[in-house]
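FIELD: query
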Amino acid sequence: MFNKLQHDLLRRHIGPFLFCLLTIMFLLLMQFLILHIDKLVGKGLDLFVITELIVLQLAYMLVLAVPMSILVASLMTFGKFAELSELTAVQAAGVKPIQLVKPVLLIALMMTAFLAWFSNEVLPEANFKARSLFLDIRMKKPGFDLKANSFYDGIEGYTFLTRDISSEADTLIDVTIFQDANDQRDQAVINAEYGILSGDDVQFSLKLDLYNGSVYRYLPDQSGTTNRIEESQFMQHRIRFDLSDMNFSRTNPDVRRRDDRTMSSQAMRIYADSLQYEIDRHVASLMNYHLAVGMIFKGTSHLNLSHTVDIFTEKMDRNDPRFGNRPQRFEPDSSKTWVAMSVPAYYESQTNLPTTASSNIKSFENNLQNAQVNVKWRAERIAQFEVEILKKFAIPIGCIIFVLIGAPLGMLTKRGNLGFNAVLSTVLFTFYWISIIQGEKMADRLIISPVIGMWFGNIILALLGIVLMYKVTSGRRISDLWRPN
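FIELD: result
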């Protein structure tokens, strides 16, 4: 299928690709640990739980790392190939550069198909399980996470406030504890100059020894109403906290709801279609209501409610001789403001017309505003689903685009070292990633189309790759494209 030269170029890609893949995933993993290490360490979690969470997080890291690794590998391989004058030799032998790139493009196409499947089938499940596990870690095992000058209520029945914390000796400086009442203790406020924490791993409890402080107890009477406060001083006071209910436990992930990051494209398409159906139903209902209420204002697009009510009130004054006890016809001053109406015979009905019209119009305005809010929310949700569906395929296609850029760019730069190509790859990938992130944000807010938001970066870089490939293949300068023959 491939000749020896093409096989050799593919073999040269393996080393740089694997090295960059592992390096990028390591950096992404370090970023994750730096952001969340305080939520994982010091909570008595099993090593298996932490390892499982990290493995689940590797899924999204792989989707990001593979396209960038392909870019770096292409730059290094073809840059080294040109740097050693091998490109010049094969061109002299009649081999075109595009023939050297074809097998790499084929492998990139296979990687694109794999990543598209991975992003649609594996990544949502990994994100769902990772999010569920992370919520279990944060909610079921919050830990004794005291922070200076901040209220902490992680232990049921107690709220802590401390001015400073000495981490070396687990000492709390100027501590205040708000104790809730239950069957075994009264409501109280405890102040102390300092306190020392110590744990009991066997009984899974926590001891807090307080020194030089006071206790204010709120004592209820027989009716249960607090009517007096008791103050006592102490040199040393110990409180034991039972932390058994804070032990880590797993929750069934199926009881949690999924969002766009944890759903496949097929599931998101079903949700988007149902939301679109609800939008159509809202619009149809609103139009029917408009036809029922808006007949009072025939073809009127400019509605001045206060002016209309004033006209009704003025024309229905008690002293107006045109109004009697028999039905009359009222000729309007302006047919553009409101249409002619039959004036009811009874004066009570006549005087209620402005109020009725005003109420109907305000009701229509409220329904219109509510419908606009509902339609906008559903439209934004549809846009979010569309963005996520397109992203599952836009990022994998980056594998092909980065080969189109990396191969000719490496031939032009003739630099095969890692440092130069890593910097060049970082610049290109930064532009690519910013275009995706900003496109996603603007599409979610209905500023631009999801297609434009997700494919703008791909289109720009694909055009750049085509231009570079043309230059390498034809040997002509880019400016020659605009020169007459």
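FIELD: remark
The chain has a mean pLDDT of 78.
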